[in-house]
Amino acid sequence: xxxxxxxxxxxxxxxxxxxxxxxxxxETPAFMPVGTAATVKAMRPESVAETxxxxxxxxxxxxxxxxxxxxxxxxxGLHTFMNWPKPILTDSGGFQVMSLAxxxxxxxxxxxxxxxIDGSEHRLTPARSIEIQDLLDADITxxxxxxxxxxxxxGTAAESMRLSMRWAKLSRSAxxxxxxxxxxxxxxxxxxxxxxxxxxxxxxxxxxxxYAIGGLAVGEGQAExxxxxxxxxxxxxxxxxxxxxxxxxxxxxxxxxxxxxxMFDCVLPSRSGRTGQALTRRxxxxxxxxxxxxxxxxxxxxxxxxxxxxYSRAYLHHLSKADEILGPMLLTWHNLHYYQELxxxxxxxxxxxxxxxxxxxxxxxxxxxxxxxx
Length: 374
What we know:
The chain is of the alpha/beta class. The protein is 41% helix and 19% strand.
């Protein structure tokens, strides 16, 4: 293993750990804000760091098209390019390519597709995906995979998963091992237990620095996602980081941590911030609702983010209704701050052997809902 990972404590299946990478350390459980095109939308990198984030996610597909991985490499790599000196994980581009219905053709060796930007034709293979992520200087590189559509019949899911396992082996062969950098394999298999087990066996036989669980949070619902995690997570090596891709809502994070997941990413906190939704310890708040129009209180009196310490609900409501840029900026900052605060709370609870109490308190506060107007 070329990256460092140590488990500092456990509480049931949950793990409190630390990942050591070329550009710094990441305390786990960890949430990675999504910086698809070398930016977390509506946020300066310095502001993202102030929320407590220690690692960001970048995207192979978007960056290979614009401005190109080669240009980013010439300019010093993605860390320098976007002014983010901390660790970066890049996803392989597989999910975005697979979503290009009518624009792509899959074969055993990769995908040929047309750009959503200008229609130009491109070829993405496991080796090319790994090369792009190397050019970007990603601390954590993801194996190229096919994200199985949902719902999928067993036969379709099996064919898709086995293609991903073929690509995982090719990705491993193409990856350049060096200290502080790692390659993660991705478990697929839809909601089928036997396919998830087969996928884990194939990946662990190849050998990766960490293991991601893909193909969830795609419409199967939280209960089914947790059921798949109950089957899959215990099969993964104890001494490697576990990453649940594209998840999720605060309750998803808490439940997945209880099941042994270490790392997460999701566009939800930043996307919600841009659409007037704040995610708080008392549930979601739609700041565009008229009940906030004259409310002088902060969004969350127990939150230390700039949106909550410096501005009223009335002002945030005004910004949202007036389509002022400051509104999405402040709500995105709040949401990312809340997610990092939630992760810090989970880490402390695992270390203190109080995770069940933490989860119960979290669920109680979420169920109580937002504070009523004065």
